[in-house]
Design goal:
alpha+beta
Length: 271
C-alpha cells in the first residue's frame, strides 16, 4: 500500500518575516561595518594626497638644491622660478690663451679635469650655457645674460684638461673659487606654478623667453598634481647669507580632505 506524504511549502507570511529579519540584521551589521570601511577609504585618500604632495616637494627641493647660485626668485607666492644646473667645474685662470682673464672677451677656456670622465648626465655638451659668478643683480644676472655664454664646442682629447669653446664673451666678475656652472640646453629656466585650475605645473623655457614670468601654458615635464589649493612660496633673501632658505607650503584637497605639507630647502648661493 503506497504511503501518502504531506508536502507543504513556505507561506507568504513566513517569507515576509524572513525578509524583515534579514533586513534588520543587515541594518545592524551595516552600523558596525560602515565605520571601518569609511576609515579605510579616508586613510587611502589621505595617503594618496600625502604621497602626491611629498613627490612634488621632493622634485622642487631637488631643483632648488641644484639651482644656479642666486637664481631662485619668487615673483609671487604662487610661482617659484630658478635656473637649473647640470654640473660645475673650475676654470684655468691667468692671462694665457687657455684661461679666463676677465679683461677682454674670451672665446674659449680650459676646464680643470676631463669632461668625458663625468657621469653621462653631467657632461658638458654643445648648446649648454656657461655661467660665471652669478649674483642675481644688475651686471651679474644670468637671466638677462650678463655673465653667461653658449657652448659651441667641447674638446678633451688630450685626456688632461677640457677646452670649452664659447660664444665670445667678457665675463664681468671673476669667481674667487675659479668656478663656473653649466646650465643645460634643454632647461634654461624652470618655473613651478600653482595655476587657477588647481594644478601644480613644472614648465621650462629658454633665456630668450626670460621675460615671460611664471608661464602656465608651457610644456609640462611632470604630471599635473590635481586639487592643489593656493600654494605659498617664500624666499628669505639676505646678502649676508650664502645658504638661503626657500619655504614651500602646498595644500592638496580631495573630497573634503586637506593635506598641507611645509618644507624648507636651503639653496647654495656661493657663486
Amino acid at each position: 500500500m503506497a504511503t501518502q506524504r504531506n508536502h507543504r511549502g513556505a507561506t507568504l507570511i513566513e517569507l515576509i518575516m524572513v525578509i524583515a529579519i534579514l533586513g534588520v540584521i543587515a541594518a545592524v551589521a551595516s552600523v558596525f561595518i560602515k565605520g571601518p570601511i569609511d576609515a579605510y577609504v579616508d586613510s587611502a585618500r589621505r595617503a594618496a594626497l600625502t604621497d602626491a604632495a611629498d613627490t612634488a616637494m621632493r622634485r622642487m627641493a631637488r631643483d632648488i638644491r641644484k639651482a644656479l647660485p642666486n637664481s631662485t626668485r619668487i615673483p609671487n607666492t604662487q610661482c617659484l622660478e630658478l635656473i637649473p644646473t647640470k654640473t660645475a667645474g673650475r676654470y684655468r685662470a691667468g692671462v694665457d690663451v687657455l684661461s679666463l682673464n676677465f679683461v677682454t672677451s674670451d672665446s674659449s677656456f680650459n676646464m680643470l679635469g676631463v669632461n668625458k670622465e663625468l657621469p653621462a648626465g653631467q657632461q658638458i655638451e654643445v648648446g649648454d650655457v656657461v655661467a660665471v659668478y652669478n649674483l642675481g643683480v644688475s651686471g651679474a644676472n644670468a637671466y638677462i645674460g650678463d655673465n653667461t655664454s653658449l657652448v659651441t664646442a667641447v674638446d678633451d682629447e688630450d685626456g688632461k684638461e677640457t677646452t670649452i669653446t664659447i660664444v665670445s664673451k667678457q665675463f664681468p666678475i671673476a669667481s674667487g673659487g675659479k668656478r663656473f656652472y653649466v646650465i643645460p640646453a634643454a632647461e634654461n629656466i624652470v618655473a613651478y606654478v600653482c595655476d587657477d585650475d588647481g594644478n601644480l605645473r613644472r614648465t621650462v623655457r629658454t633665456f630668450a623667453d626670460a621675460d615671460a614670468t611664471c608661464p602656465v601654458d608651457g610644456p609640462i615635464l611632470a604630471s599635473n598634481v590635481s586639487n592643489v589649493a593656493p600654494c605659498k612660496f617664500i624666499h628669505d633673501v639676505s646678502d649676508l647669507q650664502r645658504n638661503e632658505p626657500v619655504q614651500l607650503t602646498i595644500t592638496f584637497t580631495d573630497s573634503g580632505e586637506n593635506i598641507s605639507l611645509y618644507h624648507q630647502v636651503y639653496e647654495n648661493n656661493w657663486p
